Amino acid sequence: MQEEKLYPWRWVILIGMTVLLISLQFSFIVPGGAAILVMQEYQCEPMMFSMIMSIPYFSGVLFCMAGGVLADRLGLGKVFAAAFIVSLLGALARCFSGDYWTLFISSFFMGMGVAALNANSAKLLRLWFPGTANSFAMGVYTAGMSAGAALAIWYGSRVAVIQDAWWFSFGLMVVGVIVWFAVYRKHPDGEHRSVEPVGQYLRVVVKNWHVWAVAIVAFLVFGMTNVNGSYMVAAVTTLMGDPSLTSIAGDMSTINTVIACVASMALPVVFAKLFKNMRAPFIICLVGTALCFGVVFFLPYGPITWAVFCIQPILMASAMPFTKMLPTLLPSVKTEHYGVVGGIQATFQNFGMFLIASYIISPIAIAATGAVDGVPYYQGVYVATAVLCLVAVASLFLFPNVRSSVAGKIADEQAAAKNDQV
Asked: Which residues cross the membrane (predicted)?
């Protein structure tokens, strides 16, 4: 098997796509930092507010698969350009939103940029980071989600007028898009576009059960990660019992996401060194996250609350890059099909982030507690999320115990090729 080349520009590509993801994620999460202010300004209850937090991800449900297919056929640059323009127009429209439904609709169009980026992130990083650095690169990229969320929660919990947050996030998105197109380059060896008819290679991909299995994992894992962004500030504020302490809850959420940012870069590399295969570290992270979510709001507010919300992101953050790497680790997926496989996975990822927090977790919490707000309601939210983590553990047995790194997969392929030649 021919050795894949490494190009120094790969680090610039990684920085560019991470900066872009930070700006896009900031725009989605900033309402979470200003949760109380948004609910007052737009006259909405926590469940309606969580719909605002989740609707940008519904764009991905509708367009991620198309974004992956088009990238395989037309190239990444054209797909990104169209998606980012629509996303910027949505962010601009949000700046002028005066009622709940205008805010809701504009937030939907904002999600187009992340839909395109998430659908093709595995493909893009597999092109530029073909071997040992792929785990680290995916960790850095997914850290962009946590970094954007950390900045958004910190800023949003301190903003006095919500329109200021809308304009600031729009400006940040403009910067992110400019940075991306300033650094983006086509890979010197090409993008491994598929030359098969679309219908032919789609049939190959959709018949592969393992593709749908990793999509289910993405649905569960990323749906779980959206719970903190939707509820954490309001939940901790409620636990403290004083609405004027929102900024302290915002600080806790910021620390939580900063820890997640660092952990998502470092731990996948550590786990790739310690574990030959992916399943064991994945289970450790999900079970640990479930324990943290299950107990945190049954404890009185104090140092223990801070401790739990510092441990939880270390575990949960590692699950995100693990999940995003899965399409490139499946032995049965061809390189030229990474776009469409990533599109299927990102569709389920966005569906989880749209659906689970607002339309599954919240109704379950309401039904179980009989409350739509207050500490019992948030206890129900986080216990239901803990159960979701355990369901995600079960989903890991739907596909083979893949290697913990792309380098391991490549080594297996090279060994298999040598055996075939013997």
From this structure: 12-36, 48-69, 76-94, 100-119, 131-154, 166-184, 211-234, 254-275, 282-300, 306-330, 351-371, 377-399
Which one-letter DSSP state was computed for residue 297? Answer: G
CA 278 vs CA 147, 183, 273, 322, 325: distances in Å? 25, 32, 11, 8, 10
**What is the C-alpha separation between 141 and 18, in angstroms, rounded?**
5
DSSP letters along 333-402, please?
--GGGHHHHHHHHHHHHHHHHHHIIIIIIHHHHHHHHS-SSHHHHHHHHHHHHHHHHHHHHHHGGGS---
Cα 1 to Cα 409: distance, rounded to the nearest angstrom = 13
Query: Residues in the chain, how many?
Result: 422
CA dihedral of residues 330, 333, 339, 344 (deg, nearest 10): -70
Express each pLDDT in 146-194 by its tens digit. Answer: 788 878 888 887 888 999 999 999 999 999 999 998 988 887 776 555 5
Q: Model confidence over 111-157: pLDDT tens digits?
A: 888 888 877 777 788 778 766 666 778 778 878 877 888 788 888 87
Q: Is the dihedral of CA 100, 105, 109, 111 positive or negative?
A: positive
- Contacts for 159-162 with beta carbons within 8 Å, 24 or more apart? 159/33, 159/34, 159/37, 162/31, 162/34, 162/37, 162/38, 162/41
How many whole angstroms separate alpha carbon 80 and alpha carbon 188? 19
* pTM beyond 0.90: no
CB 278 within 8 A of CB 322: yes
CA distance 89 to 105: 12
How many CB atoms are closer than 10 A to CB 398?
A: 14
